[in-house]
Amino acid sequence: MMKQFTLPTTEKTDEIRTTLCREIESYYETYRRKTGTDTQWKSPLIGFADADAPEIRRLRKIISPTHYMPEDILPGATIVVSYFSGYQEEVGKDNIEGDAPSELWAKTYGDTNAMFLELNSHLKEVIEGWGFHAALPEDYGTIGTLGPDRIYSNWSQRHIAYAAGLGTFGINNMLITLNGTCGRFFSLVTDLPVLPDRPAVRENCIYKRSGKCGACIRRCPIGALSAESPFIREKCYTKLRVHEKTLKEKVCGKCTVGVPCTFRAP
Ligand code: SF4
Ligand code: SF4
Questions:
Q1: Which of 39, 46, 177, 47 is nearest to 114 (CA)?
Q2: Taking the complete model, does pTM exceed 0.85, yes or no?
Q3: pLDDT tens, position by position, 167-180
Protein backbone atom coordinates (compact mmCIF):
# COMPACT_ATOMS: atom_id res chain seq x y z
CA MET A 1 0.00 0.00 0.00
CA MET A 2 1.28 3.47 -0.91
CA LYS A 3 2.61 5.22 2.16
CA GLN A 4 0.91 8.55 2.78
CA PHE A 5 2.99 11.72 2.90
CA THR A 6 1.81 15.16 3.74
CA LEU A 7 2.35 17.66 0.97
CA PRO A 8 3.68 20.94 2.30
CA THR A 9 0.65 23.06 3.15
CA THR A 10 0.86 24.99 -0.10
CA GLU A 11 2.92 24.34 -3.22
CA LYS A 12 5.30 27.11 -2.26
CA THR A 13 8.58 26.06 -3.73
CA ASP A 14 10.67 26.75 -0.65
CA GLU A 15 8.44 24.48 1.45
CA ILE A 16 8.88 21.61 -0.98
CA ARG A 17 12.63 22.18 -1.02
CA THR A 18 12.84 22.30 2.75
CA THR A 19 10.71 19.20 3.20
CA LEU A 20 12.74 17.22 0.68
CA CYS A 21 16.01 18.29 2.28
CA ARG A 22 14.69 17.09 5.65
CA GLU A 23 13.76 13.74 4.09
CA ILE A 24 17.32 13.32 2.79
CA GLU A 25 18.91 14.39 6.08
CA SER A 26 16.81 12.08 8.22
CA TYR A 27 17.11 9.09 5.91
CA TYR A 28 20.72 8.30 6.88
CA GLU A 29 19.65 7.30 10.36
CA THR A 30 16.64 5.38 9.06
CA TYR A 31 18.94 3.50 6.71
CA ARG A 32 21.49 2.73 9.42
CA ARG A 33 18.79 1.31 11.68
CA LYS A 34 17.25 -0.70 8.86
CA THR A 35 20.48 -2.26 7.59
CA GLY A 36 22.62 -2.26 10.73
CA THR A 37 25.51 -0.73 8.78
CA ASP A 38 28.23 0.89 10.85
CA THR A 39 28.97 3.43 8.11
CA GLN A 40 28.09 7.01 8.96
CA TRP A 41 27.89 10.09 6.79
CA LYS A 42 28.15 13.80 7.42
CA SER A 43 25.00 15.88 6.97
CA PRO A 44 24.23 15.96 3.25
CA LEU A 45 24.75 18.96 1.02
CA ILE A 46 21.78 19.31 -1.32
CA GLY A 47 21.30 21.34 -4.50
CA PHE A 48 18.55 21.72 -7.10
CA ALA A 49 19.70 21.97 -10.73
CA ASP A 50 17.51 23.49 -13.41
CA ALA A 51 16.90 20.77 -16.03
CA ASP A 52 17.33 23.46 -18.68
CA ALA A 53 20.48 25.02 -17.21
CA PRO A 54 23.27 25.60 -19.77
CA GLU A 55 25.59 23.62 -17.46
CA ILE A 56 23.39 20.55 -18.12
CA ARG A 57 22.57 21.26 -21.77
CA ARG A 58 26.28 21.28 -22.66
CA LEU A 59 27.03 17.83 -21.20
CA ARG A 60 26.55 16.10 -24.56
CA LYS A 61 29.25 18.30 -25.95
CA ILE A 62 31.76 18.19 -23.10
CA ILE A 63 31.28 14.60 -21.90
CA SER A 64 29.66 12.39 -24.51
CA PRO A 65 27.03 12.65 -27.26
CA THR A 66 25.18 9.88 -25.45
CA HIS A 67 24.99 11.70 -22.10
CA TYR A 68 21.37 11.77 -20.92
CA MET A 69 19.36 14.94 -20.73
CA PRO A 70 16.88 15.06 -17.80
CA GLU A 71 13.89 14.72 -20.14
CA ASP A 72 15.32 11.44 -21.51
CA ILE A 73 14.91 10.06 -18.02
CA LEU A 74 11.68 11.77 -17.02
CA PRO A 75 9.42 13.51 -19.57
CA GLY A 76 8.59 16.99 -18.29
CA ALA A 77 11.65 17.07 -16.01
CA THR A 78 12.17 20.42 -14.33
CA ILE A 79 14.67 19.89 -11.52
CA VAL A 80 17.49 17.46 -10.81
CA VAL A 81 18.02 17.04 -7.10
CA SER A 82 21.71 16.47 -6.41
CA TYR A 83 23.21 15.56 -3.07
CA PHE A 84 26.64 15.00 -1.59
CA SER A 85 27.17 12.50 1.22
CA GLY A 86 30.47 13.29 2.90
CA TYR A 87 32.46 10.46 4.49
CA GLN A 88 33.48 10.66 8.12
CA GLU A 89 36.99 12.11 8.55
CA GLU A 90 38.42 8.83 9.84
CA VAL A 91 37.62 7.30 6.43
CA GLY A 92 39.55 9.96 4.55
CA LYS A 93 42.49 9.75 6.94
CA ASP A 94 42.55 5.96 6.63
CA ASN A 95 43.16 6.29 2.90
CA ILE A 96 46.21 8.57 3.09
CA GLU A 97 49.00 6.02 3.46
CA GLY A 98 50.35 3.95 0.57
CA ASP A 99 49.46 3.73 -3.11
CA ALA A 100 46.57 1.30 -2.69
CA PRO A 101 43.20 2.40 -1.29
CA SER A 102 42.38 1.31 2.25
CA GLU A 103 39.79 -1.36 2.97
CA LEU A 104 37.74 1.14 4.97
CA TRP A 105 37.73 3.51 2.00
CA ALA A 106 36.50 0.75 -0.32
CA LYS A 107 33.88 -0.43 2.16
CA THR A 108 32.55 3.11 2.65
CA TYR A 109 32.37 3.58 -1.11
CA GLY A 110 30.31 0.41 -1.50
CA ASP A 111 28.10 1.16 1.50
CA THR A 112 27.44 4.68 0.20
CA ASN A 113 26.40 3.39 -3.22
CA ALA A 114 24.04 0.89 -1.60
CA MET A 115 22.56 3.59 0.65
CA PHE A 116 22.03 5.91 -2.33
CA LEU A 117 19.76 3.41 -4.08
CA GLU A 118 17.55 3.06 -1.02
CA LEU A 119 17.53 6.80 -0.40
CA ASN A 120 16.52 7.55 -3.98
CA SER A 121 13.79 4.94 -3.82
CA HIS A 122 12.51 6.58 -0.62
CA LEU A 123 12.61 10.05 -2.20
CA LYS A 124 10.77 8.80 -5.26
CA GLU A 125 8.04 7.46 -3.01
CA VAL A 126 7.86 10.77 -1.14
CA ILE A 127 7.71 12.81 -4.35
CA GLU A 128 5.10 10.56 -5.93
CA GLY A 129 3.09 10.80 -2.72
CA TRP A 130 2.97 14.54 -3.37
CA GLY A 131 1.62 13.96 -6.90
CA PHE A 132 4.90 14.59 -8.78
CA HIS A 133 7.36 12.22 -10.45
CA ALA A 134 10.99 11.18 -10.04
CA ALA A 135 13.41 8.89 -11.87
CA LEU A 136 17.05 8.04 -12.44
CA PRO A 137 18.56 6.27 -15.48
CA GLU A 138 19.14 2.58 -14.84
CA ASP A 139 22.67 2.82 -16.23
CA TYR A 140 23.55 5.95 -14.24
CA GLY A 141 26.84 4.45 -13.01
CA THR A 142 27.98 2.85 -16.24
CA ILE A 143 31.33 3.86 -17.65
CA GLY A 144 31.38 3.70 -21.45
CA THR A 145 34.09 4.04 -24.05
CA LEU A 146 34.18 6.12 -27.19
CA GLY A 147 37.11 4.49 -28.91
CA PRO A 148 40.16 3.07 -27.10
CA ASP A 149 41.20 6.31 -25.40
CA ARG A 150 37.94 7.91 -24.43
CA ILE A 151 36.07 6.95 -21.28
CA TYR A 152 32.85 8.66 -20.35
CA SER A 153 29.76 8.46 -18.17
CA ASN A 154 26.19 8.78 -19.46
CA TRP A 155 25.14 10.52 -16.27
CA SER A 156 27.90 12.52 -14.63
CA GLN A 157 26.95 13.00 -11.00
CA ARG A 158 29.69 15.57 -10.51
CA HIS A 159 28.60 17.74 -13.42
CA ILE A 160 24.99 17.56 -12.26
CA ALA A 161 26.18 18.58 -8.79
CA TYR A 162 28.08 21.50 -10.32
CA ALA A 163 24.91 22.67 -12.10
CA ALA A 164 23.10 22.38 -8.76
CA GLY A 165 25.59 24.75 -7.12
CA LEU A 166 27.26 22.19 -4.87
CA GLY A 167 30.84 23.18 -5.68
CA THR A 168 33.51 23.82 -8.29
CA PHE A 169 35.97 21.46 -9.99
CA GLY A 170 39.48 21.10 -8.64
CA ILE A 171 42.66 20.15 -10.48
CA ASN A 172 41.96 16.59 -9.32
CA ASN A 173 38.73 16.57 -11.37
CA MET A 174 36.69 16.28 -8.18
CA LEU A 175 33.96 18.69 -7.25
CA ILE A 176 35.06 20.64 -4.18
CA THR A 177 32.03 21.24 -1.97
CA LEU A 178 31.75 23.13 1.31
CA ASN A 179 32.52 19.75 2.90
CA GLY A 180 35.40 19.09 0.54
CA THR A 181 35.70 16.22 -1.91
CA CYS A 182 35.71 13.27 0.49
CA GLY A 183 32.36 11.65 -0.22
CA ARG A 184 30.03 10.81 -3.07
CA PHE A 185 27.32 12.45 -5.15
CA PHE A 186 23.99 11.11 -6.25
CA SER A 187 20.92 12.59 -7.90
CA LEU A 188 17.28 12.22 -8.86
CA VAL A 189 15.43 13.75 -11.82
CA THR A 190 12.06 15.24 -10.88
CA ASP A 191 9.24 17.45 -12.14
CA LEU A 192 9.06 19.33 -8.86
CA PRO A 193 7.94 22.98 -9.02
CA VAL A 194 10.86 24.42 -7.08
CA LEU A 195 13.25 27.25 -7.80
CA PRO A 196 16.66 26.00 -8.97
CA ASP A 197 20.08 26.84 -7.60
CA ARG A 198 22.84 28.29 -9.75
CA PRO A 199 26.44 27.10 -10.05
CA ALA A 200 28.74 28.33 -7.30
CA VAL A 201 30.49 31.63 -7.97
CA ARG A 202 33.45 31.17 -5.63
CA GLU A 203 36.32 29.10 -7.05
CA ASN A 204 37.06 26.45 -4.42
CA CYS A 205 40.34 25.08 -5.83
CA ILE A 206 43.36 26.96 -4.48
CA TYR A 207 45.38 26.30 -7.63
CA LYS A 208 42.66 27.61 -9.91
CA ARG A 209 42.33 30.65 -7.69
CA SER A 210 45.96 31.53 -7.18
CA GLY A 211 48.26 29.10 -9.02
CA LYS A 212 49.39 27.68 -5.66
CA CYS A 213 48.81 24.24 -4.05
CA GLY A 214 48.79 21.36 -6.56
CA ALA A 215 48.85 18.92 -3.62
CA CYS A 216 46.50 16.53 -5.43
CA ILE A 217 48.92 16.31 -8.37
CA ARG A 218 51.68 15.12 -6.04
CA ARG A 219 49.31 12.66 -4.35
CA CYS A 220 48.46 10.73 -7.54
CA PRO A 221 50.77 7.69 -7.64
CA ILE A 222 50.50 7.24 -11.40
CA GLY A 223 50.77 10.80 -12.70
CA ALA A 224 47.22 11.08 -14.00
CA LEU A 225 46.95 14.71 -12.85
CA SER A 226 48.70 17.81 -14.00
CA ALA A 227 48.08 21.53 -13.78
CA GLU A 228 48.91 22.10 -17.43
CA SER A 229 47.02 19.31 -19.18
CA PRO A 230 43.64 17.66 -18.68
CA PHE A 231 43.12 14.82 -16.23
CA ILE A 232 44.15 11.51 -17.88
CA ARG A 233 40.93 9.63 -17.24
CA GLU A 234 42.03 6.40 -18.93
CA LYS A 235 45.15 6.13 -16.77
CA CYS A 236 43.10 6.68 -13.63
CA TYR A 237 40.47 4.16 -14.72
CA THR A 238 43.13 1.51 -15.23
CA LYS A 239 44.22 1.97 -11.62
CA LEU A 240 40.64 1.73 -10.35
CA ARG A 241 40.22 -1.57 -12.18
CA VAL A 242 43.41 -2.95 -10.65
CA HIS A 243 42.07 -2.27 -7.14
CA GLU A 244 38.68 -3.70 -8.04
CA LYS A 245 40.32 -7.11 -8.29
CA THR A 246 41.22 -7.13 -4.60
CA LEU A 247 38.76 -4.68 -3.02
CA LYS A 248 35.68 -5.46 -5.18
CA GLU A 249 35.14 -1.75 -5.85
CA LYS A 250 36.63 0.59 -8.45
CA VAL A 251 38.33 2.86 -5.93
CA CYS A 252 41.46 4.92 -5.35
CA GLY A 253 40.80 8.46 -4.06
CA LYS A 254 44.45 9.16 -3.18
CA CYS A 255 44.20 12.61 -4.80
CA THR A 256 41.25 13.55 -2.59
CA VAL A 257 42.83 12.77 0.80
CA GLY A 258 45.65 14.46 2.68
CA VAL A 259 45.06 17.66 0.67
CA PRO A 260 43.59 21.05 1.64
CA CYS A 261 40.23 20.37 -0.06
CA THR A 262 39.59 16.93 1.49
CA PHE A 263 37.06 18.00 4.12
CA ARG A 264 36.28 21.63 3.28
CA ALA A 265 36.42 24.26 0.59
CA PRO A 266 39.82 25.85 1.29
S1 SF4 B 1 44.56 19.75 -3.64
FE2 SF4 B 1 44.83 21.94 -4.06
S3 SF4 B 1 45.12 22.05 -6.31
FE4 SF4 B 1 44.27 20.04 -5.86
S5 SF4 B 1 42.06 20.31 -6.12
FE6 SF4 B 1 42.50 20.62 -3.93
S7 SF4 B 1 42.80 22.83 -3.72
FE8 SF4 B 1 42.93 22.36 -5.93
S1 SF4 C 1 41.79 8.56 -8.28
FE2 SF4 C 1 43.87 7.76 -7.97
S3 SF4 C 1 44.65 7.30 -10.01
FE4 SF4 C 1 42.87 8.60 -10.26
S5 SF4 C 1 43.72 10.68 -10.38
FE6 SF4 C 1 43.19 10.33 -8.23
S7 SF4 C 1 45.05 9.52 -7.29
FE8 SF4 C 1 45.30 9.38 -9.52
A1: 39
A2: yes
A3: 999 999 999 999 99
